[in-house]
## 1
Amino acid sequence: MQTVNASNRSGFESLLRVYRETDLSQEKTRILGSLASCPDPNIILEVLNFILSPEVRSQDAVFGLAVCREGRETAWTWLKENWEHIWKTYGSGFLVTQFVSAIVSPFASFEKVKEVEDFFTTRLKPSITRTLKQSIERVNINAEWVQSIQNEEYLAEAVKELAYRKY
């Protein structure tokens, strides 16, 4: 499967064309995942806006949420800016929880936990409470792991030893 990157805008347009031309649902979901993997924030924003368009079936939108590490902040900002529309479109069902989980869970900082909690304080609905709690728990776990790695005194030495070990 082709992926999209910042140096290959034509890759994005090519995949988008294939998405629009194919009738195969499985192909469309693979393409959405490939489009979202781009590290270019501008393309990620286009993909995120595209998944809210009538061209994408609502149950397929979640495949376009699998953004790469470089796109996490873009996706988070997009979610906040589009939350009302997402809530109105996807309501209290399973799909809205996927938006929360896919965009929030990959973060790995205690600052992001606070930011997410602050955002959802006035927007919390019973149907997303559990998913939001689980997503915040995942971010806390990720942040604790990052912190433990950063505090590991001999990590660089261990990695170097493993990298040059002759097997």
## 2
Amino acid sequence: MPTLTKLYSMKEASQHNTKDDCWIVIDGKVYDVSTYLDDHPGGDDVILATTGKDATDEFEDAGHSKDAKELMETMCIGELDTDASASAEPETQPTGYPEKLMTLTKQYWAVPAAVVGFSVVVGILYLRKK
């Protein structure tokens, strides 16, 4: 069934992620909430954290009132193009993932080494008492 509203891809909606230009996606609809950020009771950072993804769960979990939902409808600028999101390539691990893992391993090597060292000292002290 054709829609009367403009269709936006998730990629396009995610590009609007600043305080001056903020779009969110809830229940398959795209909302331009840029002018509402300063008035949001939970603060603008709550909304900004949901840009670039489907924010339906976060919106529902917050328990918004009927008035809030009616106000939100005035900010609707279109719908999410489900065909575009279905044809998008699946996300893969970033190419730098192995490098990040190695960096973290090198950075936090002291914790397991300390546990092993502590265990050896406790074992030696235990055996000396026998």
